[in-house]
Amino acid sequence: MGEAPALFVDYLQNGCGLKSNCCQTATVIGSKRYLIGKTVGESTMSIDVRIFDECRREWVIPTVLGKKPEQCNGHSAVSLNGDRILIIRKDSLPADSIWILEVDSKYVRDQKKVLETEVVAWSKGVIGDTEKPIVISGPSGVGKGTLISMLMKEFPSMFGFSVSHTTRAPRGMEQNGVHYHFTERIVMEKDIKDGKFLEFASVHGNLYGTSIEAVEAVADAGKRCILDIDVQGARSVRASSLEATFIFICPPSMEELEKRLRSRGTEAEEQVLKRLRNAEAEIEQGKSPGIFDHFLYNDNLEECYKNLKKLLGLDGTTAPTHRPSAKVVDLPLNHTVLKADNKILIAGSENASKNLIVLDVSLLIGGAPWRTRGLHIFEVDSSSDCLNEIIQLS
Ligand SMILES: Nc1ncnc2c1ncn2[C@@H]1O[C@H](COP(=O)(O)OP(=O)(O)OP(=O)(O)O)[C@@H](O)[C@H]1O
Ligand SMILES: Nc1nc2c(ncn2[C@@H]2O[C@H](COP(=O)(O)O)[C@@H](O)[C@H]2O)c(=O)[nH]1
């Protein structure tokens, strides 16, 4: 596509990636310049990304994965560790102001190989130590759904269910969008190819998968996400950036499992037999090291539920693992940023004497295609020693 348009030259001269202007920033990482923001003449709803490859002297329009931030009245961009760009949106609510564009993370490198194209991926930044999602696996009929329903009924404001996609037909009482998103195989395969799924697997002859949107919807509602997925899915999530707590539910015996599957009465004989055959392999795989953090036996339902609550810190004997949400610090609508080591100093342009905001990015967890957690934000007095230390580091 040739040379960078003259229109962008002002921004392209800004090699350190710290400049903010009304609509677009340029951040240099290696031989690539990432132009982030509104592209002149285009009217997309989300922030655009285009790359100028210095070696090949050409523009590249990358495949953009993850949920994208909406357009705003400008932003600041800061390169982090050479593999991510931190975006601070102006004019935005605190919960929607920090985003991360991954340009060379493990997830992005893996996706580049799969899609055989240039890839970048968005991840929304979360302030504070939010709760890990919970992955629950176990053979069909062991009682995963029953335990999850009990948890959601007792703690409706704490937990949200990740509604999976499946190609299997709905059962009598199942509602589309509530129990599953029931879908055609061809549609689901295309969405998988387009990077819309966090994980997917073929289970008992049908395709099942967790979309990024399903997990995002729970996080957007401010709840802790519960995923009911098979062992293959759990393995994929373990390898992803989701950083969850993994729980495997075991049956007391194969006879009891068969009894439960049959008494549920939802499967035809052929399916029951298939699910029982698969159960042995699933239990075996579930035990393999490195996937599950906890194993629970679902013999007596009440007992198992009590143990589930105990390990989640909800039984009153241990401190609840559900932490209060982080203190809200309003970012100034218009600001400039300065990076010092793992801290980003945000100063409002309107009232220089006001407190400054420090964003600590030293303990980031997770990332695309989900959220980046562990961002810490605090205010400092503009005359404090801490501020001087940060400035000296920059
Ligand atoms: N501890 C238990 N004792 C007896 N019956 C149980 C117990 N736990 C669950 N059940 C019953 O077993 C049946 C299967 O449970 P459930 O549907 O929750 O299993 P599941 O693991 O979610 O299965 P699937 O993976 O097929 O969705 C249900 O009828 C449920 O009421
Ligand atoms: N890998 C995934 N497995 C999933 C997902 N959603 C459900 N499941 C698992 O499928 C079986 C069968 O479920 P059923 O509703 O047909 O009985 C069960 O083990 C679920 O845990 C998913 O998104 N990904």
Describe this structure in words.
The chain is of the alpha/beta class and 394 residues long. The chain has two domains: 174 residues, no CATH class; 179 residues, Rossmann fold, CATH 3.40.50. Helix content is 26%, strand content 30%. The chain is built from ten helices and 23 strands. Helix 7 crosses helix 8. The longest helix is centred in the last third of the chain and has 19 residues. The two termini are 36 Å apart. The N terminus is likely disordered. GO terms for molecular function: ATP binding; GMP kinase activity. This is Guanylate kinase 1. It is an enzyme of class 2 (transferase). It catalyses: GMP + ATP = GDP + ADP. InterPro entries: Gal_Oxase/kelch_b-propeller, GK/Ca_channel_bsu, Guanylate_kin-like_dom, Guanylate_kinase, Guanylate_kinase_CS, P-loop_NTPase.
Topology:
Layout: H1 9-12, E1 24-29, E2 32-37, E3 48-53, E4 58-60, E5 63-65, E6 75-80, E7 84-89, E8 98-102, H2 106-115, E9 119-127, E10 134-137, H3 144-154, E11 159-161, E12 165-166, E13 181-182, H4 185-193, E14 197-203, E15 206-211, H5 212-220, E16 224-228, H6 231-239, E17 245-250, H7 254-264, H8 269-287, E18 294-297, H9 301-311, E19 335-340, E20 343-348, E21 356-360, E22 365-366, E23 372-380, H10 385-393
Parallel strand pairs: 5-9, 9-23, 10-16, 10-17, 11-16, 12-13, 17-18
Antiparallel strand pairs: 1-2, 2-3, 3-4, 6-7, 7-8, 8-9, 12-15, 14-15, 19-20, 20-21, 21-23, 22-23
Helix pairs in contact: 7-8
Bound molecules: adenosine-5'-triphosphate and the ligand Nc1nc2c(ncn2[C@@H]2O[C@H](COP(=O)(O)O)[C@@H](O)[C@H]2O)c(=O)[nH]1.
The site of adenosine-5'-triphosphate has 13 residues, from helix 3 and helix 7.
